[in-house]
Amino acid sequence: MIMLKFNNITKIFKTDIIDQPFTALSDVSFVIPSGSMVGFLGANGAGKTTSIKIIMDFIRADQGVIEFDQKLGKNKLEIFQKIGFLPERPYFYPGLTGEEFVHYMGSLSDLTRPQIKASLDKWGERFRISHAMKRPLKTYSKGMLQRIGFLTTVLHDPDFIILDEPLSGLDPVGRKELKDAIISLHQEGKTVFFSSHIVPDIEEVCDRVIFLKEGKLVYDGEVKKILGDGQEENFIIKFYAEGVDPRGYFPNIEKLPGDLWKCIVPSVDKERCLKVLLEHNMKIQKIDNDKKTLEQIFYQIRTQS
Predict the structure, then answer these.
(1) Which alpha helices (DSSP H) does 32-112 contain, by range?
(2) Model pTM score
(3) Smallest Cα–Cα separation from 292: which of 229, 237, 250, 238?
(4) Which residue has the higher pLDDT, 213 or 168?
(5) Residues 73 and 79 sit within 8 Å (Cβ to Cβ)
(6) What is the reported pLDDT for 294?
(7) In whole angstroms, what is the distance from residue 165 CA to residue 53 CA?
(8) Residue 267 has what DSSP assignment?
(9) Is the confidence at residue 230, as pLDDT, over 50?
(10) Spatial CA neighbour of 54 closest among 182, 164, 198, 218
(11) How confident is the model at residue 292 (pLDDT cuts 50, 70, 90)?
(12) What is the DSSP letter of 293?
């Protein structure tokens, strides 16, 4: 099943009569399967936040339509009651305590006080924020605000969770804890869609990825497919060749400082190359997988003309 279809969306911003109109999105289409964990990648200005704002109906597309899974509801009110959204720069009322803010946000979703308490008990401990619920939000750190923002995003038990840069600005510990929470939500059957500049995190937790570049779709599909799924895998072998010139044995070889050499071999030739090294008493220093990471692919896409 498909949780959301983004169908041929175009969005043009008209600033004033002097400047040329800016095309933020140009005929973009992608899908978010139900139950998937989808990462949303693109450089600043690629159109990620514009896409999310269109999904959330904060702004309207000039062309194209958004289609939601019918299980979310028959109209926009029903649909958005089943969506949890955390914006990139959420606003928090500094004079409220954490508990007051959570109850206020829960009331906007028509939750009862017992429902809010049950959700707070569940997620407060998981997000390690329970100890600060009686304190004013103005005393919270960036990481604590992000945690309570995340808590209110899932307070009403949404089926579809949309997160705009949820890990931005967090320290490594905070990022790890919130990433674990995202994984936990996905394991509970939630559909999660989040944009991030932290590419390794998306590679680690997502099963699908969507790339945007300059308002156009570059890729929409499984992470394992864009990574090659193990096909044409190469290995980097570093070795010492004292008193031996190894250039006649390996086609793709590079001299490093000292007696150290490096060769790149396809997986089918790996065992043969290792046998040659051992037969000629060349000492192996290290063997690495040369498979491209999602981050390398992302930056390669960014720099392509």
Answers:
(1) 48-55, 76-81, 98-108
(2) 0.76
(3) 229
(4) 213
(5) yes
(6) 62
(7) 13
(8) G
(9) no
(10) 164
(11) low
(12) P
Cβ contact 194:162 at 8 Å: yes
Q: How many CB atoms lie within 10 A of CB 292?
A: 13
CA–CA gap between residue 94 and residue 294 (Å, rounded): 38
Cα distance between residue 259 and residue 240, in whole Å = 5
Question: Phi and psi (nearest 5°) for 289?
Answer: -75, 130
Q: Are strands 234-240 and 260-266 parallel, antiparallel or unpaired?
A: antiparallel
CA distance 276 to 260: 16
DSSP 291: P
Q: What percent of the chain has pLDDT over 70?
A: 91
**Structure token pair of residue 227:** 């990574």
Q: Which CATH architecture has domain 2-226?
A: 3-Layer(aba) Sandwich (3.40)
Return mean pLDDT, the chain: 86
Beta strands at 37-41 and 208-213: parallel, antiparallel or unpaired: parallel
Query: Would you state the structure tokens that stand for residue 75, as one six-digit string?
Result: 């109209």
Closest to 292 measured CA to CA, from 231, 238, 250, 237: 231
Q: Copy the structure tokens of residue 76.
A: 């926009």
Q: Cβ distance 186 to 192 under 8 Å? A: yes
Burial 8-20 (b: 16+ CB within 10 A, else e): ebebeeeeeeeee
Q: Is the pLDDT of residue 175 over 70?
A: yes
- Nearest CA to 222 out of 32, 66, 49, 68 is that of 32
CB 98 within 8 A of CB 132: yes
88 half-sphere exposure, CB direction, 13 A CA radius: 13
Joined tokens for residue 166? 């949820």
User: Could you count the other beta carbons within 10 Å of the beta carbon of residue 225?
Assistant: 12
3-state secondary structure of 148: helix
pLDDT at position 228 over 80: no
Do residues 220 and 301 make contact, with C-beta atoms less than 8 angstroms apart? no
| Half-sphere exposure (Cβ direction) of 188: Cα atoms closer than 13 Å | 14
Other beta carbons within 10 angstroms of residue 120's beta carbon come to: 21
Helices 113-126, 98-108: crossing angle, 10 deg rounding: 130
